[in-house]
């Protein structure tokens, strides 16, 4: 099995272990939005920078914290597997494989389009901690910002499935040793109210 596939499998196993633990902490009250949990998977590919060829496979687990009108707020955990290369200013190409995890928040605007179909926009921010300096020449921590539109099908009172397009920016926010990179790709999600 390839190294990247082993890391992605480990990422999914960690996510699968965390979701039931979080569900057990939520109170069993149908009117409490905190019983709504969502798991997202996205696959991002490099864009904008010609010298940053970094892709990632990422799992996000979110717990709904509240809703006001058409805006919902979530908190959660992100686990990511990054792979690729970065070419720095002196044209040296460096390996930029790493994995990381960190706390995340998400805001979502959602509006009914027709019947069970909803359209919306997500915006997320995550503080990531990596197993080594990432990308090459950076630091072992950084921020992951994502935003993009989403279509959601509410299949019943408790379940929904969605697909979206996401634009991502990652950097550590520092003035030095900050080789940020961008990505875009598709995301899929399943949400359930326990």
Largest sheet: 8 strands, antiparallel, barrel
Task: Give the termini separation.
Answer: 35 Å
Strand content: over 45%
How many beta-strand elements? 9
Structural class computed from helices and strand pairing: mainly beta
Helical content, roughly?
10-25%
Note poorly predicted spans: 17-30
* Helix segment tally: 1
In one word, what is the shape?
Answer: elongated
SSE sequence, one letter per element? HEEEEEEEEE
Radius of gyration: 17 Å
Describe the structure.
The chain is mainly beta and 194 residues long. Helices cover 12% and strands 64% of the residues. The chain is built from one helix and nine strands. It has one helix spanning 3-25, and strands at residues 36-46, 52-68, 71-87, 93-95, 98-114, 117-134, 139-154, 159-171, 181-193. The protein has an eight-stranded antiparallel barrel. The longest helix has 23 residues, at 3-25. It starts with a helix and ends with a strand. Mean pLDDT is 86; it is low at 17-30.
């Amino acid at each position: 099995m390839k190294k990247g596939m082993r890391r992605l499998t480990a990422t999914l196993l960690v996510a699968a272990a965390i979701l039931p633990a979080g569900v057990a902490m939520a109170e069993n009250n149908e009117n409490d939005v905190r019983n709504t949990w969502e798991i997202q998977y996205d696959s991002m590919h490099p864009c904008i920078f010609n010298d940053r060829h970094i892709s990632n496979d990422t799992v996000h687990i979110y717990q709904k914290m509240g809703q006001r009108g058409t805006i919902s707020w979530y908190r959660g955990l992100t686990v990511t597997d990054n792979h690729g290369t970065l070419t720095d200013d002196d044209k040296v190409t460096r390996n930029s494989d790493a994995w990381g995890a960190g706390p995340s928040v998400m805001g979502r605007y959602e509006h009914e389009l027709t019947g069970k179909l909803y359209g919306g926009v997500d915006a997320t921010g995550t503080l990531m901690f990596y197993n080594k300096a990432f990308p090459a020449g950076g630091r072992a921590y950084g921020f992951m910002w994502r935003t993009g539109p989403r279509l959601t099908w509410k299949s019943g009172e408790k379940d929904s499935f969605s697909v979206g397009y996401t634009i991502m920016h990652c950097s550590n926010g520092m003035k030095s040793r900050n080789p940020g990179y961008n990505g875009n790709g598709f995301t899929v999600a399943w949400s359930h109210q326990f």
